């Protein structure tokens, strides 16, 4: 995922300069050569002067002097509290009791977050600078034009920030969302040129780099395969946004991947069959996951009528993320089949078991390849003709329930679903590992480090799910206490209904009474 952190310099148009997905684009050309070509700035020389003065650098200096020590941070927090109580920030305006943020090179969207927090708390910054002990710091305050520039830069950076958040999920597959998200980002940036015309030179440079990257991704198979195995997308998005030749190529990539899995499975089966009899009773490691279909799993079976699968919380979050991008698009614009036919489920098995004594090895291999191709084509056609699932479908649940219906596609899904759309998840692992491998734990070996990381992730995930359960719990019925006394027992569900609203004393009294304990 490309992080657009400030106004970009002119981008190199050579193919070799295409950035990696996790590469950050360096912004803000020192001589502002691109800004000189922006004729809109000629109409507002004060804005152009403020832009040339590097307002982002000035914002960093202002934030540094406000939070240089713990005493100043505490005093700044008190300034916010006093201003909220006195209503000095405006009628009905109450600022959050937060601290200013610094941007960090290793943190995604850190410049956007820094500017966003500064603009939000700037009335408190002004009041802070008016205090007797800090009047000499008032020279660091920003001018009105510098604030105008920061407002425009914030609006510009909000667009890639929204896309980056969408693709940074670590509990649901996101690779299939990469190309639609990038295309949406490109369209939003083009719309932003009219709204933020004074920094259009930076937006144009971002568009140029993004278009190069999109041309590169169309030649990368993993993105196309990820979209095809998404039952809510399949070929629909590709047919709408790609040329007919590119869509045909994507289908051919999927077909090749499925055939490769079938050929490898056939080779493994032949190797197992030709093994010595003395080792035939030895359990063999499965060449594919154990929950794959059994004897006739090589054959395509007619899909059962599709049923609505429940969408997970993370899949619904992805959908909400795209909806937020659509809201942003509208804002910028204002300012500027059911399966047909059936297949014989035993066809593949019957063909695979056919043997001809008079055919050569080459003829037999060609025949088996033709049979594999027919089965793969039938499975892929049935999958596409099945129709699209809902947008909030959970991909893991879908492929777990369709592993026998589309066995070869399922094998492709096992390889593609773990591919992340951005490096955020892996960077989180490195940050978490640093907290585990402290100076007092330098003797940890690789195996123990892996165990601790997996265990920590599992505990955190369980804690989040438990927290969501409690926050989503319905209010307890008013007669819970009477029901407990009548039944003379405390069930986990009933105990939870008392713990959730904080009625711990009532719960303890009932437990003591049920068990006959003395007070």
From TrEMBL:
Main location as per UniProt = nucleus
Q: Does the keyword Secreted apply?
A: no
Return the annotated region ranges for Disordered: 265-315, 330-371
Q: Where is the composition biased (Low complexity)?
A: 271-290, 333-345
- What GO MF terms are annotated? protein dimerization activity; zinc ion binding
Pfam families registered for this protein in UniProt: Dimer_Tnp_hAT
Query: What UniProt keywords are attached to this protein's entry?
Result: Metal-binding, Nucleus, Zinc, Zinc-finger
Q: Where is the HAT C-terminal dimerisation domain?
A: 379-456
**Where is it located?**
Nucleus
Q: Which GO terms describe its cellular component?
A: nucleus
Q: Which PANTHER family match?
A: ZINC FINGER BED DOMAIN-CONTAINING PROTEIN 39, ZINC FINGER BED DOMAIN-CONTAINING PROTEIN 4
Q: What is this protein called in UniProt?
A: HAT C-terminal dimerisation domain-containing protein
What species is given as this protein's source? Trametes pubescens
């Amino acid at each position: 995922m490309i992080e657009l952190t400030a106004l970009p310099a002119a981008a190199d148009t050579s193919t070799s300069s295409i950035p990696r997905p996790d590469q950050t684009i360096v912004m803000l050309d020192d001589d502002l050569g691109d800004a000189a070509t922006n004729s809109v700035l000629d109409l507002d020389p004060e804005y152009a002067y403020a832009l040339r003065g590097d307002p982002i650098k000035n914002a960093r200096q202002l934030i540094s002097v406000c939070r240089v020590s713990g005493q100043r941070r505490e005093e700044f927090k008190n300034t916010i509290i006093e201003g909220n109580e006195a209503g000095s920030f405006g009628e009905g305006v109450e600022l959050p009791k937060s601290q200013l943020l610094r941007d960090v090179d290793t943190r995604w969207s850190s410049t956007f977050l820094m500017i966003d927090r500064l603009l939000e708390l700037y009335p408190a910054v002004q009041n802070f600078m008016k205090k007797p002990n800090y009047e000499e710091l008032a020279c660091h305050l920003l001018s009105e034009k510098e604030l105008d520039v920061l407002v425009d830069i914030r609006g510009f950076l909000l667009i890639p920030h929204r896309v980056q958040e969408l693709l940074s999920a670590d509990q649901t597959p996101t690779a299939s969302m990469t190309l639609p998200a990038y295309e949406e980002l490109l369209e939003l940036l083009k719309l932003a040129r009219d709204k933020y015309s004074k920094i259009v030179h930076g937006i144009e440079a971002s568009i140029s780099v993004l278009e190069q990257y999109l041309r590169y991704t169309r030649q990368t198979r993993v993105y196309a395969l990820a979209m095809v195995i998404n039952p809510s997308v399949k070929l629909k998005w590709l047919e709408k946004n790609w040329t007919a030749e590119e869509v045909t190529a994507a289908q051919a990539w999927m077909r090749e991947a499925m055939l490769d899995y079938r050929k490898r499975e056939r080779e493994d089966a032949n190797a197992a069959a030709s093994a010595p009899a003395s080792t035939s009773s030895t359990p063999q490691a499965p060449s594919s996951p154990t929950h794959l279909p059994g004897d006739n799993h090589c054959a395509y079976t007619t899909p059962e009528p599709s049923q609505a699968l429940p969408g997970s919380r993370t899949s619904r979050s992805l959908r909400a993320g795209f909806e937020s991008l659509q809201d942003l698009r509208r804002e910028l614009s204002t300012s500027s089949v059911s399966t047909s036919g059936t297949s014989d489920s035993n066809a593949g098995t019957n063909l695979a078991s056919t043997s001809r004594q008079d055919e050569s090895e080459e003829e037999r291999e060609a025949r088996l390849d033709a049979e594999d191709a027919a089965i793969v084509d039938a499975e892929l056609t049935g999958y596409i003709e099945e129709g699209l699932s809902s947008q909030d479908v959970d991909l893991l649940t879908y492929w777990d329930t369709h592993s026998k219906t589309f066995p070869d596609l399922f094998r492709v899904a096992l390889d593609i679903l773990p591919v992340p759309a951005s490096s955020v998840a892996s960077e989180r692992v490195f940050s978490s590992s640093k907290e585990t491998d402290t100076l007092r734990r330098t003797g940890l070996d690789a195996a123990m480090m892996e165990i601790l990381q997996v265990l920590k992730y599992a505990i955190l995930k369980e804690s989040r799910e438990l927290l969501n359960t409690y926050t989503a719990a319905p209010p307890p019925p008013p007669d819970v206490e009477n029901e407990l006394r009548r039944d003379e027992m405390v069930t986990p569900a009933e105990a939870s209904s008392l713990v959730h609203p904080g009625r711990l004393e009532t719960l303890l009294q009932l437990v003591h009474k049920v068990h006959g304990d003395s007070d």
